[in-house]
Fold each of these.
Amino acid sequence: MRETAYCFAADLGGTKLAAAIADARGGIVAELTEPTDRRGAAYVAEQIAACADKLAKTVGIEVTRASHVMVGIPGAIDPRTGRVSLTPNIAGLEDFDVLGFLRGRFGPDVAIENDVNLAMLGEHALGCASHCSNAAFLALGTGAGLGLLIDDKLFRGARGSAGEIADLPIGRDPTSQNPSASGTFELEVGSLAIVDRYRRQGGTAAATVRDIFRLLEQGDEVAASVLDTTARWVALAVVTLQSLLDLELIVFGGSIGVRPELYERVRRALPAHFSRPITIAPSRLGDRAGLIGAAWAAGQALRQNPGGAERANLK
Amino acid sequence: MPSPPIASVTRQLSRRSVFEALLHRSPISRADLAKVTALSKQTMSEVIDAFEQQGLVRAVGRTSGNVGRTAVLYELSPDGGHVLGIDLGARRLTVALADIAGRVLAEADEPTDSRGGAWALDQIARLSDRLARDNHTHPSRIRSIVMATPGVVNPKSGAIEMAPNITGLDHLNVVGLLGEKLGPVVLENDINLALLGEIWHGCAQNVDNVAFLALGSGVGLGLYVNGRLVRGENGAAGEIGYLPIGGDPLQAESRLQGCLEYQIGATGVVRRYREAGGSDVDSERQVFERAQAGDPIAAYVVDETARLTALAAAAVIATVDPQLLVLGGSVGVRPDFADKVARVLLQLSARPVEIRTSTLGRRAGVVGALSVALRRLHDEFFGVAELAARPLPPPTQRNARQ
């Protein structure tokens, strides 16, 4: 049977943009990935719309058939206003009406959601958290973010900033020095912090965290020590989450979080820090978790409210 | 489970909406009840007749002043059923009795039997019986009992675990033994109930997203989101005492008592005062009193306690983003302490949150226990599982403290 309704999903990151057209069950039909337009929010928004056009052409449908849209945004989204905040990686995004722009292009059935929340949804729908009602997706990469699933539902907080764990008071004591606007946990485990730690401990050849992982494979002792330290900070954040929320599973994702060299170190560190067991696992969907979650969420919206699809068919 | 037949669900829905209207709008006439509930006059007559037979409603007078015939006014009968709320604290045991409309009839408290275990359970039964007897309430009229307790109830053994401040409850079937003495008792974490108390009748009314941070003998957290408590996978959500803040999370005391609680729980405050060179004190309260009297060592310990509490609050805010943070517990309710916490938090968090101190103070737990006991009683009479419960109205009469 020919599909009559589609959705469009995108996962916007600081360095790359992934997009997909999915069927009414949220299953991805076609997808692409591009470097994020560096010129800022307005260009990025146009880029998202252009991705939809390209994908529609690939699938051989009018882009208007993709009536339901879900876009993952790397920031906190206020549930009442739709305002985006805490997005240092995309210039101008906080002052740009993303939702308004997308509705102008795609119609009313557009939603935006925090990217890590969508990764959590993806793992819950199709990944390693499918059996869980209470879980978290811990994204570690350039920064640190958290998606929370409580009683089978996304948990966004009063202002949409639940899980903004960059601010966790885990790391160097924030009250003993000049308190800065950015978060303490991220200052210990963000990619810049890891590279900086490597240099401070006498390492020389690393420009990126990927370099450090490569050096680790070659037996570099400084790299091993740096990852040990990083894993201890991450373990403290995991203990914090477990104490507060008593989760069944914490999924590790993001470019650094999925590396076994990191999460195995965290796993080994946990028993000494917490008397009850804590289950952690690497993301099964990897760097596609956010996109898969977005497609799944758009598909769910389409099934619950197919009206948008009917409108599209009338055209 | 088979679903009930449609007719019985409809009847139950009618009964529930009439009951809710009586709960929120008493005294009220049959005509006004019919208007509010949009039920037919005939259905209304049937429901009211049934309620009268069950002793749930009573006539309290007639409408007056308006043109036309006067009408009988009804309210929920105080004899319709009673509920008991119990708060078993490490230091104090509190018991309260309320009627089906949420009117608090009596309340009593005494120091918790320090021997703990079976002695504490005997004390609970004795105090509850006395309260009921003094109010001429036969035990059979008490239809729902909820008890607030520290720690986590093990659903298999009925024991109370992770409650180091009351001895001997971790190897007793508390649920079973109290059931034999008082009838079925529902146990719930004390912080969760204190939070529900504040939502029902305290400083957190009409707020959807609340974190309640309690600091006293121990430290605990209750989370309420979109009308529900967050309990976690094993009922251990909010065990904030185990946050890796304030000390070395790898040391033995941290693993046993919790890293944060070892520092800012009552014994931690006393210990840190002594370690900092303070003279002997019996309780953390004395440390706070001395700080106010100008003792610089005590002031330092209090400031440090506030700083660590603010760090814990910052972890809560970063993780769950509450709309309101309530500080409770014997230390948390001190206004000077809450001010210190708020000041540190302003430095720490880019997104400060509104902070209030508990208005129910040490009654928060027992008030929360009453609210849950009432909700359970209402559900037993009128519950349709699929219906979301409306919030209870505030009690119409303040407590009659004994």
Amino acid sequence: MSDELSNITKFFGDWHLARIYQGLSARFHLGDWHRTIDEKLKTLDDLYQLMQAERSTRWMFDARDGDGGALPDRRSCCWCLSLRIAGALSGFDAYLSKCGIPARMQPRSVWRFSRWLRPTSLLWTTSSCPKRWSCTTSAFDPKRERSTSSKRRFPRSLQTRWTLLARMDDKPVGFWIGF
Amino acid sequence: MASLLIEEANPARISDQESTESTARYYSYYDRDLVVVDWDAALIVDEPAYFDETLYVMELANVQLAELEAYDRILDTAVERSYRDVSVRRLRGRQGGDLPARTSRDPHRSGPA
């Protein structure tokens, strides 16, 4: 229907009728309406691309993690996910390089890392994690454990958002950034 | 004629400017026919046998206008919802580029309707 209406001038065999239609079209500002709708469609497309890019960024770590396999199963254990993140915490730059992320895009600190890896990634399946007990009992209050150097590196406002979910040996692995 | 097109009860009070504006778009083929179109109404002077085609064209233009208004309304809602979705994501601390600029042009405001 829309196409027929948009191309209605094709059906005019009568130049006089076509002139009348052109006059009506100008009086009703049909061209302006078309342009406005095109602009809004473009805005919608831009917004969609923006959200798509953000989602791709969130998935980047997990999608390229380890052997570079497929996207992780949402039902996978958050503990396993934490173990995978351990590599990033212990050798972050190397991990990012292995993931195929260009150096110019790599965050420069663990704090930046927390902004890259969104908390939703860690909180997918906390409730269904088979090792939830061991995860949660390892949780700690970062305010008590922060060091002098961490004070400098991580402002208080950011520290309070960190919650440790699990440890591996004496090394913290897997954080929940609690917004 | 202008008072007919703009449905003004008192033709004597219509200004010259409004009369000219209302009757500016007129079309004629033979010396016995005349079509004058305006926003709210149109005047057709012709043989009864030839009315139909002109009326058909006018109806199509009206349907097009109604269709475009409906699209515009739907898109307004969709764009608002999308901006809200993106804003919520931003409030949660997610990164991204600048939001695309909102479209400012609106025939509702710029049009003479």
